[in-house]
Write a structure and sequence with these properties.
By secondary structure, the chain is of the alpha/beta class. The protein has 3 helices and 3 strands; from the N terminus they run αβαβαβ. It has helices spanning about 15, 30-45, 55-60, and strands at about 20-25, 50, 70. It has a 3-stranded parallel beta sheet with strand order 1-2-3, covered by helices on one side. About 15% of the residues are buried.
Length: about 80
């Protein structure tokens, strides 16, 4: 029998930010959209940006040396 996992304690704005992924998956997204999206995520200290696979390289460069991660999706 497994033990239930306690949810994270979210009692501050920063704690809330660290469990949010900022998602942009629209097919018509542009370089500028991705750059702006990454900047917003970094500004607010969000956990990650979630983007289409074709934007991983750009987002990784934008978020290098930050606390924000890059997440992608495959096979919707």
């Amino acid at each position: 029998m497994s033990t239930p996992i306690d949810p994270p304690k979210i009692n501050t704005r920063m704690a809330m930010a660290r469990v949010i992924d900022h998602t942009i998956l629209k097919p018509q997204a542009t370089d500028e959209d991705i750059i702006r999206h990454c900047a917003e995520a970094q500004e607010f200290g969000l956990w990650a940006v979630c983007i289409a696979p074709c934007w991983v390289s750009l987002a990784s460069r934008c978020l290098r040396d930050t606390c924000t991660n890059v997440v992608t999706v495959i096979g919707f």
